[in-house]
Amino acid sequence: MLDVSSNRPDLPPEIARRRTFAIISHPDAGKTTLTEKFLLYGGAIQMAGQVRAKGEARRTRSDFMQMEKDRGISVSASAMSFDFNGLRFNLVDTPGHSDFSEDTYRTLTAVDAAVMVIDGAKGVESQTQKLFEVCRLRDLPILTFCNKMDRESRDTFEIIDEIQENLAIDVTPASWPIGTGKEFVGCYDLLRDRLELMDRADRNKIAETIEINGLDDPKLSEHVPAHLLDQFLEEIEMARELLPTLDPQAVLEGHMTPIWFGSAINSFGVKELMDGIGRYGPQPQVQSASPRNISPEETKVSGFVFKVQANMDPKHRDRVAFVRMAAGHFKRGMKLTHVRTKKPMAISNPVLFLASDRELAEEAWAGDIIGIPNHGQLRIGDTLTEGEALRVSGIPSFAPELLQGVRAGDPLKAKHLEKALMQFAEEGAAKVFKPSIGSGFIVGVVGQLQFEVLASRIEMEYGLPVRFEQSQFTSARWVSGDAQAVDKFTNTNKQHIALDNDGDIVFLTRLQWDIDRVARDYPDVVLTATKEMM
Ligand code: G4P
């Protein structure tokens, strides 16, 4: 059992043992493989290959999933819980494609740390960089796993330098690879003075560990070929001179990342990484909220919705709101207050996501992710409490970068279209604007691909063919400010005004010039490109 009492000694043990994190990586770096090994060691699956197999089965179910597969992206939501060494890990899946940045951003509001996976031959790739920047906005602690060390990879110093330079974060080696490519034999665990040897013959076998008494221990030469050992000792000497040593506080503050080297497919280095998440990863953190922040050890339960997924089971038209528990000890059947509507909600069928199945959650602690099936009451950004009017902050909605008009293939089905659009808007998959003049809707997204995904889902889930068409507008800004000024502004600019899916006022335009004009002509009106989801 790991010592988990170090970073917050005052937390109740059930909360202190929780680690809630996401994996960030560029497609193909090994996120799925690593996830699978986590689940394997967490006892959540019995055999490697199950997650992928399950994924394939799900994907072939529909055109949409087929499209997802073809493009190599992952849009299916999941949060997985598993136990390891006395710890409870909650792994929240981040959508992989750059088009889904808003969704990804919100997912990252629900975690306390991120594991960054990079490919040892490719280093820091574009998507990793983007996701890293998002983590940086929240100062999320990052632990790094350099994968595919069984293949020809870059020089270790070069990899570390690249991370330091591209991401402007201190990197400290937690392990050091010995040999590369075909000659890769394993790693030296710098934190615990151990030699970990990789077994190429059996991919699922856990590495053999040999306790080493310092770098002049003769046991090293028994296990490492002489030419590799010499090079390794030289590198270690240099590393100790040039690279910073591990500072747990700097890791928690997001200024330093420890890096482990390994090969997920060979189950190598994964346990060390999991130990690392336990030792150096943060426990559930304080959640920013208004009028006051929420501490995980508070006895009263609270949580917030960071993701809504509709139609997870197409037979049941259900919606699941993914809730990150911010504080307390939740028990199934509890009545919580839905702060936005001030209404009580009995949470009788919460679910926990275990690898491939959902299971009723009898209880949950701060740090956990539960799914609450509902009929649309719960929206992204909503807070649930035991009565106090707290609202979690920091879950933004971004102005869409692409706008298109949408029409139902069959004009008689316009009402159905509205329903479908509202549902996707609630999921956060698109913004839907109803212009104050004329009929029809304008849909806003962040990436072009989302229009295709939407059209395909509306057809599949609602049996409604739709057409997206060019809109006269290209930008949207939320309108706020002095009520009288806003009234005057909306009345004189009716052809540019719409309501978004929450009923908030939006200014639609083609030109930056228009936005600048509003700032000049209406000093009491504020146009913003983001809005807090509440
Ligand atoms: P992703 O979720 O980040 O996109 O990556 P994924 O785990 O799917 O891995 C991408 C490819 O890299 C897969 O190969 C996977 O087997 C391989 N891979 C993962 N970890 C390692 C590793 O440690 N060493 C090596 N050599 N390869 C690794 P694929 O050919 O695309 O799929 P598959 O046919 O092997 O399933």
From TrEMBL:
Keyword Nucleotide-binding: yes
Highest taxon above the source species: Bacteria
Location(s) in or outside the cell: Cytoplasm
Binding site for GTP: 25-32, 93-97, 147-150
UniProt GO molecular function: GTP binding; GTPase activity; guanosine tetraphosphate binding; translation release factor activity, codon nonspecific; translation release factor activity, codon specific
GO cellular component terms, semicolon-separated: cytosol
Name the UniProt record assigns to this protein: Peptide chain release factor 3
Lineage start: Bacteria, Pseudomonadati, Pseudomonadota, Alphaproteobacteria, Rhodobacterales
